[in-house]
Every structure is written in C-alpha cells, then in structure tokens.
Design a protein that fits this description.
CATH superfamily: P-loop containing nucleotide triphosphate hydrolases
Structural class: alpha/beta
Radius of gyration: 17 Å
Shape: globular
CATH topology: Rossmann fold
Number of strands: 6
CATH architecture: 3-Layer(aba) Sandwich
Largest sheet: 6 strands, parallel
CATH class: Alpha Beta
Number of domains: 1
Number of helices: 9
Strand order of the largest sheet: 2-3-1-4-5-6
Length: 220
Amino acid sequence: MTVGIERFRHIAVEGPIGAGKTTLAHLLATRLGAELMLEQPAENPFLDRFYDDMPGYAFQTQLFFLFQRERQVRGLAQASMFGQGLVSDFMFAKDAIFAKLTLSDEEYRLYSLMHAPIAAQLREPDLVIWLQARPETLLARLRRRGVAMEQQIGLDYLERLADAYVEHFASYAGAPVLAVDAEEFNPLARAGHVQELIDCLEGFTGRRGTLVPTSDESPG
C-alpha cells in the first residue's frame, strides 16, 4: 500500500445506503493495490421481502447479515489479505446499527445475545471512512440507480438511518474515523477527489478527522 497509509492495513468505508461506499472501496483498493472485500446483499434471501414488509422480515434479514458478515470478517485472519492491505465497503459494527433501527425491542434483545459474543472476537478495522450525505441526496441516488428492491425505501427510513450512523459514531472508539462530505465528494467524476482523500489519509494521525473536498479539477 502507499507509504504513509500502510499503517491502515484494513480500511473500512461506511455510511448509509446510497452514500457511495462500494464505488469508493473499488477506487481505493485499485489505487492502493489492496484486496477488496464487499458486502454480498444479493445472497440474503430475505432482503427483497424486507423492503416490502420491514416489520415482518427484519429479524430474518438481520440474522442472515449477522452471520454472513461474521464469516467475511473472520476471513481477515488470512495472511494473504493482510500482506497487501484490505479495503472493505462495510464494517462488522454496521450490523448492530441496522438491527437497532429495524428490530422491535424484543427482537433486538434476542439479537444482542447473539451479536455480543461474536463482536467480542472480531478485529476492528484500522481506519473507518464515514461517508455523510443528506437523506434527500441518498434518496435521489437510489432512485437514479434503479435497483428494484431499493425503490421501496422512503425518505423517513433514510433519515432514521443517517441519524443512527451519527449516534453510532458519536461513541465509537474502535478505530480512527475520517468523516467525508459525500455531498461534494465525487470520486467517479473528479479524479482529484480520490487523490485528496489519499493525501489526507497519509497525514491522518488522530482519532477523528473531516474531509471536505476542494478540488475543482474538471471531470475526467
């Protein structure tokens, strides 16, 4: 990985649905010569039904993701991944964010009994990049990309999800967190934004930081 960033052996890109996590993870992994680990939502057999009936299918959907993400994160022990660094478009802690948002109180208590011992055994990332955008922006992006099951998602859900991320990171101490303004950050259209992020990471030594991209490079 790039000198100055190699101390971040696992960089996790996080944020609400529509924030641009997967796009940025792909770009960073390519630029840094790192392994790429992506969420696999298509493998969840309950996800379509969850978006149609959230209360009815939240628990099944969440349990599938819990154990799927556990398998993925446990794989970080493989030496081949850590040899060249790793970029993921999720962190294991996100599972509890969604569970708290979507499950009933009784379901969440049961979920927590399963989640806590798993989380205690898993490694935190070395750095979290938290993409932030207004719920209205997230909704517009979901509508543009046109994934069928995502069209059921409404503004109210995105508002609650964005708030849940704010609440989570207000007390999160597992890894340094760099918050990125995803309203302005456009790494696909402006290559300069990717370089700004890499430059920021090279000098990032604290626990919390913020990046508001300033590049006015023309799209390319």
